[in-house]
User: Which sequence fits this backbone?
């Protein structure tokens, strides 16, 4: 990889030069039939504020310059450049007219959007270019597998390749005429057949990929194999399937090392390796994963007995996070997770804002030491945006106390805090039935409901008079001789605007609190985004919030709080102002 490529890209990223490209996809899509969005009736209740002045627009998360985005597609690291494709509606801030937009980065922080990579041109994708993945083939040749919507609105799988491998940006992609390479035949539901994964190669030299599907309520990961990436043959049974769960969207299947944080290329298998299988469940609009073993010779994935393979199972993120996808970054030898976070405001608001949807901060992902779950942490590159820092340590939070974190721009910050609790033995008893629904528990036991050990944590995006705040906090319960730690990201008080979606998200944390009383929390706050990492990334929750205070001149507050009987100590707290991450649009499409 030539440094000149880096420099060239970097120059384009840091210089606000709007190079104007002309390209012709627009004509090509004009006649296609799409799911066209109809302008909804204006809501009768007008918002008490103007939402067009971008107060909710994130400044360091990947966000579209305008219009709707959803799933990350085919992320990859290729010859020194990160490529992020994503589902995009070039015509508005609501879902529809879906194509693959294309952004480039050398640091996962600053992005340059170039022209769209894949858009309807052929019969096999004339009604839409939906999600898919990239695979790097032998000879360092990238390939994309994606779902096309054909003239009969059937979902089919297609392949696409870069037109010019010497172009460092891989700007143009072609779709061979032999597409589709996988069709919904032999009992596959043509309306439930989509989102092919990154392919992996087995020891027999054959490529494999899975496509998400369902029959009635049976969720399925249909397995295909190919010697040449051109002719794909369906295996006799799915890689994995689960009853009573419905459509599996955006499956992801990849190896992780039993020990250490190093990532693995998707084709690696063998001793010291486990596999992670993730699906996005259309039924709940949340994602679930299991850790297990991949038996290549049997073409089967079997989750470990410690992994719950149902809607009560593990999630990467217990909040607004969906359609995620990982990729292997061969540069830094790590596996990176990208995910979409949708808006929680109304469609009317989205139209007024002119944009909808963001990508969460890319997260490094590895298997926890206990082998039962994954751990996620924002990529280290994001720390390059940290500016002015404020620090606190050794402070005590008595019951009902609140401590302001001063000297930081609270609407755009990165906060890391370690708490220490005492008096664990006085934790409230835990009812076993609560295990299946942490979100419900967070709804009942909110930040303002006093407890014994907790609730304690952070109040973010708070108004001066505390009529608005988002509470990210922990609460510890006692169950027999053990402790159960609940983490909540409670948006119920996040905004005085009645029309926005304000759930109290929650997940349990496999914490070390029993050993030393300590628990950590990191929050990435970015206007309408609150992305939180409990216990060093063991439990993650993303909330989207729309406080009115962001549209006023008054100060936005950040506080540490404790509403539990037992005193909580802040071992250390660091908070940084965050600079903007650039998303430059050089695609010039309308
Ligand atoms: C391929 O890309 C290289 C590098 O950008 C460029 O110099 C060359 O002209 C391109 N070839 C074609 C056929 O477009
Ligand atoms: C096929 O998928 C569509 C779309 O989800 C669904 O409405 C239909 O019931 C499915 N048919 C079967 C047999 O599962
Ligand atoms: C509290 O502050 C918000 C905005 O910061 C304002 O809209 C609201 O009217 C205030 N409420 C009270 C009771 O002062
Ligand atoms: C995001 O928006 C909220 C509020 O409208 C919905 O309840 C969620 O289902 C939706 N999430 C996804 C993944 O679409």
Assistant:
């Amino acid at each position: 990889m030539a440094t000149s490529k880096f420099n060239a890209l970097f120059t384009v990223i840091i210089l606000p030069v709007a190079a104007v490209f002309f390209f012709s996809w627009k004509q090509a899509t004009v006649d296609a039939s799409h799911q066209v969005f109809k302008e909804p009736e204006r809501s009768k209740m007008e918002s008490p504020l103007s939402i067009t002045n971008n107060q909710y627009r994130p400044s360091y998360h990947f966000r579209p310059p305008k219009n709707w985005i959803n799933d990350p597609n085919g992320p990859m690291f290729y010859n020194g450049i990160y490529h992020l494709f994503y589902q995009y509606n070039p015509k508005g801030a609501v879902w529809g007219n879906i194509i693959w937009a294309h952004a480039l980065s050398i640091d996962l922080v600053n992005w340059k959007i170039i022209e769209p990579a894949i858009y309807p041109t052929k019969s096999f994708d004339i009604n839409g270019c939906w999600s898919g993945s990239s695979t790097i083939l032998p000879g360092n040749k990238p390939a994309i597998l994606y779902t096309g919507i054909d003239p009969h609105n059937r979902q089919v799988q297609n392949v696409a390749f870069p037109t010019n491998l010497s172009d460092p940006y891989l700007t143009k992609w072609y779709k061979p005429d032999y597409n589709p390479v996988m069709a919904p035949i032999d009992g596959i539901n043509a309306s439930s057949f989509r989102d092919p994964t990154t392919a992996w190669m087995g020891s027999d030299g054959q490529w494999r990929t899975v496509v998400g599907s369902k029959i009635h309520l049976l969720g399925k990961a249909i397995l295909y194999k190919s010697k040449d990436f051109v002719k794909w043959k369906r295996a006799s049974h799915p890689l994995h399937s689960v009853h009573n769960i419905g459509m599996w969207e955006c499956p992801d299947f990849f190896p992780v090392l039993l020990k250490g944080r190093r990532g693995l290329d998707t084709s690696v298998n063998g001793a010291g390796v486990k596999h992670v299988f993730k699906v996005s469940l259309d039924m709940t609009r949340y994602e679930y994963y299991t850790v297990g073993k991949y038996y290549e010779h049997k073409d089967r994935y079997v989750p470990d007995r410690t992994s719950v393979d149902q809607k009560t199972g593990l999630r990467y993120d217990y909040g607004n996070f969906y359609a995620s996808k990982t990729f292997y970054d061969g540069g830094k030898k790590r596996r990176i997770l990208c995910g979409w976070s949708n808006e929680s405001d109304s469609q009317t608001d989205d139209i007024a804002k002119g944009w909808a949807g963001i990508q969460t901060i890319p997260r490094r992902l590895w298997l926890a030491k206990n082998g039962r779950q994954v751990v996620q942490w924002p990529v280290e590159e994001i720390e390059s945006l940290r500016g002015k820092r404020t620090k606190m340590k050794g402070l005590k939070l008595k019951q009902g106390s609140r401590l302001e974190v001063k000297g930081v721009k609270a609407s755009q910050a990165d906060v890391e805090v370690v708490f220490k609790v005492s008096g664990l033995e006085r934790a409230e008893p835990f009812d076993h039935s609560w295990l299946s629904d942490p979100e419900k528990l967070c709804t009942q036991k909110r930040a303002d409901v006093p407890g014994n050990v907790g609730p304690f944590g952070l109040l973010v995006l708070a108004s001066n008079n505390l009529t608005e705040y988002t509470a990210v906090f922990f609460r510890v319960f006692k169950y027999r001789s053990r402790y159960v730690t609940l983490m909540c990201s409670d948006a119920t008080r996040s905004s005085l605007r009645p029309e926005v979606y304000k759930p109290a998200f929650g997940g349990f944390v496999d914490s070390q609190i029993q050993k030393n009383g300590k628990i950590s929390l990191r929050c990435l706050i970015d206007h309408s985004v609150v992305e939180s990492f409990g216990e060093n990334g063991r439990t993650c929750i993303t909330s989207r919030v729309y406080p009115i205070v962001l549209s006023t001149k008054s100060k936005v507050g950040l506080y540490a709080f404790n509403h539990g009987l037992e005193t909580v100590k802040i071992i250390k707290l660091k908070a940084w102002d965050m600079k903007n991450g650039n998303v430059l649009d050089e695609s010039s499409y309308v």
Summary: The pocket of 2-acetamido-2-deoxy-beta-D-glucopyranose (ligand 2) is lined by residues 189, 191-192, 214-216, 247 (CB under 6 Å). The chain has five helices and 38 strands. Confidence is low (pLDDT under 50) at residues 1-48. The longest strand covers residues 67-78.
